[in-house]
Specification:
about 110 residues; mainly beta; 7-stranded mixed beta sheet; 4-stranded antiparallel beta sheet
């Protein structure tokens, strides 16, 4: 059984920065990891992903502002968010792939205030 525990969410001002972490326990995450987000009334959307080989992919609106990284020794993926905008406010979810299985965290709320 794999558990993903996100942390780092909270209240941040417009233009500010926040770093999210997602620690996986139970098994080593051998596959890709990703961050998704879901704002009220909207569908969950991909923010960024990173392969086991550390190749990264970003949604267009996050390119240049967000950075995804992973520390395999800690079985953890990070999302550094800079220049935050009101539209970045959402619940951010961690996702991890092991073999054919996909796992989700419980989410962490990011609120952006002006």
């Amino acid at each position: 059984q794999v558990q993903l525990v996100e942390s780092g969410g909270g209240l941040v001002q417009v233009g500010g920065s926040r770093r999210l972490s997602c620690a996986a326990t139970g098994r080593f995450v051998s596959g890709a990891m990703a961050w998704y987000r879901q704002a009220p009334g909207k569908q969950r959307e991909l923010v960024a992903s990173i392969t086991s080989g550390t190749s990264t992919n970003y949604a267009d609106s996050e390119k240049g502002r967000f950075t995804i990284s992973r520390d395999n020794a800690k079985n953890t993926v990070y999302l550094q968010m800079n220049s935050l905008k009101p539209e970045d406010a959402a619940v951010y979810y961690c996702n991890a792939h092991i073999s054919v299985y996909s796992y989700w965290g419980q989410g962490t709320q990011v609120t952006v205030s002006s």
